[in-house]
Amino acid sequence: MCRWLAYSGTPVLLDTILYKPAHSLIDQSLHSRLGVETTNGDGFGVGWYARETGTDTPAVLRDVGPAWNNRNLREIAQHVMSPLVFAHIRASTGTAVQQTNCHPFRHGRWMWMHNGSIVGFHQLRRELCVAVEPSLFLEMEGTTDSEVMFFLALTLGLEEDPPGAVARMVGLVERTGRAHGVADPVQMTVAVTDGRAVWAFRYASAGIARSLFYSTRVESLRALHPDVSFLQEVSDDTRLVVSEPLSDLPGAWNEVPEHTYGVVRVGHDSLHTFAPLPA
Fold this sequence. Notes:
Shape: globular
Strand content: 25-35%
Largest sheet: 7 strands, antiparallel
Pfam family, one: GATase_4
CATH architecture: 4-Layer Sandwich
CATH class: Alpha Beta
Protein name: Class II glutamine amidotransferase
Radius of gyration: 18 Å
InterPro entries: EgtC-like, Gamma-glu_amide_hydrolase, GATase_2_dom, Ntn_hydrolases_N
CATH topology: Glutamine Phosphoribosylpyrophosphate, subunit 1, domain 1
Keywords: Glutamine amidotransferase
């Protein structure tokens, strides 16, 4: 499958969150502990918002090679600073290793990334694609189930109601899958953002969903670990959501419960029950 992280908070260099942690996303690209595969080398992507440019549209860098030896990623990570970052390392579930299949996916000011799969996607792909709103369909460039999920969510109202749209997307995929004899079609952790808030979802039609964790509140971590300089440099609103913990720092990470979504925004974050809805 894949590994990903979403960062929201005090602007930091990409290097701080991508390379410096003991079990950073770059380390996970070779040595994942909780993923289906140990190695995630089928491409990577990083998306970030640069508020000083006066645009809400995120920048996205994607490549087909492994993240661990990409010189361009290493170069920009030491110079680009952002308050909201998505990063993803890919292990393909069967679709081609190509740039247009790397996450995060972008539409306007929105970004989306996914770990998991639509079971039996090759059977369901045509019907699911037909359900995408025609003008949005023309924007789809790749061949992954993840991108189809994103554009289905956009079709079903993501820009107005992210939790409701994702729930309707999952409901549509499940209904379509079961009509084709796929009993349990959805396995996912998803992160989506409009540059202001981050929504993160953990859900599986059956069984245990892919791993997902969120960071403990910064003020609590400062009390536990007053010697950790990073905690002294970031605001109380700073949060990370990750496929697997970036460090073994005691008390730093909390597992997102099954069938749950979380919302992270300045001054507020919360967890809610997630369930599919009819589309």
